[in-house]
Design a protein that fits this description.
10 helices, 297 residues, mainly alpha, single chain
Length: 297
């Protein structure tokens, strides 16, 4: 590696170590609690007419907005975690994408509550209940299938020789660093549009669009080190599942759930076929128990 690559890899490792430290996680957890309580307080004060006019116009009067806005922050943290997971394992990064999808579906379910009057009255709002139930059910199905996906990975064979894996991880760290910079820029620009009163964009939709191109780039990088058909097909298939997720995020509620669940089924089938029929190295010794999903490195 040249000196620039070494510097960028060190920068990524430093940012990742700081972001994933126990101290940072505790601070973030406290911050989410304070944000939720603070947002709920502002909404309550606005409902009572106690906020100044310059502030009240920017604060909702629906208490459920505090839930959806806090969920948005949780999704931001999950996206950052996804970026850091890219260099570790392709299968783990895919799992993180579906975790984000499940949380987005849950957030969409909570968003439907903002269409109900306060106190909640369901009579005459059947359409809201249907969308809420569909998003909730979709999130649950993705959650269950995600468990099956992680379970299938517990005995996944290694697809890389150690020396090749080191080079591939280095390349993915550089890609992840660029992706992190792009996500930060998107967040800052969206915040600028919000504060200046201009129309904003859905940062998660655009991020998944960017993620499609990132996955394809990783497929091309992987082909440099491992040009075998099954490896290309596996990595390209995971990129396709990202495309399915992106399309699901912009579809109507029912179609969105169907496409999201379908993407999860596709990734699960791809994982099973890859691990079962295209192993490069052998599985654990006969009779040896498979480690739990969380224990695999």
């Amino acid at each position: 590696m040249n000196i620039i690559t070494l510097y960028l890899v060190h920068l990524f490792d430093t940012i990742q170590a700081h972001a994933e430290s126990e101290v940072t996680r505790r601070r973030v957890g406290k911050g989410l609690i304070l944000f939720f309580l603070g947002t709920l307080t502002l909404i309550e004060l606005n409902t009572l007419g106690l906020l100044p006019e310059w502030l009240s116009s920017h604060v909702s009067m629906n208490r459920f907005h505090a839930v959806t806005q806090t969920f948005t922050l949780v999704l931001v943290l999950e996206v950052v975690d996804l970026i850091f997971s890219l260099p570790r394992s392709t299968s783990r990064a895919v799992a993180k994408q579906f975790e984000i999808l499940a949380l987005i579906l849950l957030r969409n379910a909570f968003k439907e509550l903002t269409n109900l009057p306060v106190p909640i009255e369901v009579i005459g709002h059947t359409d809201v209940l249907i969308r809420l139930a569909a998003n909730g059910a979709g999130a649950l199905v993705v959650f269950v299938l995600l468990g099956a996906y992680k379970y299938a990975q517990r005995c996944a064979p290694r697809h890389w020789a150690p020396e090749i894996l080191t080079k591939f991880i280095t390349a993915k760290k550089l890609v992840a660093l660029l992706l992190l910079g792009a996500f930060i820029f998107m967040g800052v620009y969206d915040s600028y549009l919000l504060l200046s009163g201009q129309p904003t964009f859905d940062i998660f939709h655009d991020f998944y669009t960017l993620l499609i191109f990132t996955d394809i780039l990783i497929v091309l990088i992987a082909q440099r080190y491992m040009p075998e058909f099954h490896a290309i097909f596996r990595n390209s298939g995971f990129a396709l599942s990202t495309l399915f997720i992106r399309m699901a995020l912009t579809a109507d509620t029912i179609l969105s759930v169907i496409m999201g669940v379908g993407a999860m089924v596709f990734a699960l089938g791809l994982t099973y076929a890859s691990n079962r029929f295209y192993a490069i190295t052998s599985h654990p010794a006969a009779g040896a128990p498979c480690p739990l999903p969380g224990s695999r490195k």
